[in-house]
Amino acid sequence: MFKYTKLSTGIALATLVISSQTQAAGFALNDHSATASGSALAGVASSNEDISSSFWNPANLTNTDKPTFYASGALVIPNMDVTVNSATDPTGNDLTGAKAPGDIVDTTLVPSLVYAHPISKKTVLGASLNVPFGLSGEYGDEWAGRYHSSKSEVSDIAVAFSVAHKYSDKLAVGASIQLHSAEVILDAALTDFQGGNSAKGDGSGSIQADDIAVGYAFGIKFEPQKGTRIGLGYRSEIDFAFEGDVKYSNVNNTLLSKGLDDVYVFDEITFPDVFTFSVEQDINDKLTLGATAMRTGWGTMDGLNIAFDLGGDNVKQPNSVLTFDFEDQWFYSIGATYQATNKLVLRTGFAMDNSPIKDEYRSARTPDGDRKWITLGATYQVSKTTSITAAYNNVSVDDVKVNRNGAPEDAVRGRLDADYESSADVFSLGMNMVF
How far apart (Å, rounded) are the C-alpha atoms in residues 190 and 49? Predict the structure, then answer.
């Protein structure tokens, strides 16, 4: 019975925490500042430009000595091309469904808001809203890999309250407490064991679950000598206990006999922590160079252990255990900022963003590959109190192969061999206002 119940939630939840979003490795989002995006996050934890970099290092709230509001939005325009080489259902029937649509990954707007309010010459309070993790992708229920995935949506909205203190001209520290609200919607087709050609055709399953959790962050910024800045920032793991429901339709009699019911589901999942180390060096009064190394602790996500409530037929589905075995990974970037005029600042950067996915566990919900960023950006000082920032980020993703070749956890999903080509363009716009 276990292998059949894995179909009901396994194909829907197997990659709850991995994104087909092409902007960032895994499902983490790094579009929290148009300023930082322009230089590919180079020097972001040590930046003294504005308060938007406080997402990576809350000590950077001390970058202002007046009430300040920063609003940023990033429009992520992804592209994913999927070529299905072969696919079969659990009994070996060839699947020749429709080609995967060209708009699998949705265009997404990622917002970010930060407010800083000094309460003394050295201490600043802050509040912010960000989307640290998220994805949105839909294959539809007609393509050949429909038993592996048809739709995935994950969102994590975080509200943070921060405090930063400047001990001296050389040293500042900061910390924050965060409230995370996460929601998951995951759909997949259910096999009829005849390649979708039975009188009833395929069924479908959908899971919706959510939770609220608490996290924290802290950071330090140090300027050992004028013009040289070092920043360290840490954002904690987020422990979610997702609760929700699974709903089925048009389920095959074989699966019904194994206890599939519309029931409550539960799983505990830990979103990764993030450590950011940055350095900036002022070359002269116009040019600044920066570098960042960022480690994301994907290794906390080794798998799922999904629990089911007792069904209406008085049969409790056994837990569905699925393996991820993610790896901790690093993001590296270098960049430059140039003060072209009194009102205009120019930026550029390059980054390498490594994927946590191992080849043997990549799936239709995890078509993740290493990324390279090339970025451009600029800030224009509109008035003494307002500046506008724009940035462009071209993201290229390594071509990858999904080869689900009959592993035990795919016993009721069938086989899938597909090639993925992905890229993204990200346009960011921000406004900084001092009161």
Answer: 52
Q: What are the two backbone dihedrals, phi and then psi, of residue 66, each rounded to the nearest 5 degrees?
A: -135, 160
Question: Between the CA atoms of 175, 181, 182 and 185, what dihedral angle is there, to the nearest 10 degrees?
Answer: -160
The CATH number of the domain where 54 resides is what?
2.40.160.60
Residue 383's CB is within 10 A of a number of other CB atoms, namely: 9
User: What proportion of the chain, given as a percentage, has pLDDT over 70?
Assistant: 91
Residue 340's domain spans which residues? Answer: 2-434
Amino acid identity of residue 101, one-letter, is P
Tell me: the pLDDT tens digits for 411-425? 778 899 999 999 999
Nearest 5°: phi and psi at 67?
A: -55, 130
Burial class (CB in 10 A: 0-12, 13-18, 19+), 139: buried
Q: What is the pLDDT of residues 80-91, one digit of tens each?
A: 889 999 999 999
Cβ neighbours for 284, distance < 8 A, ≥ 6 positions apart? none
Q: How many domains does the chain have?
A: 1
pLDDT tops 80 at residue 328: yes
Residue 9 has pLDDT above 70, yes or no: no
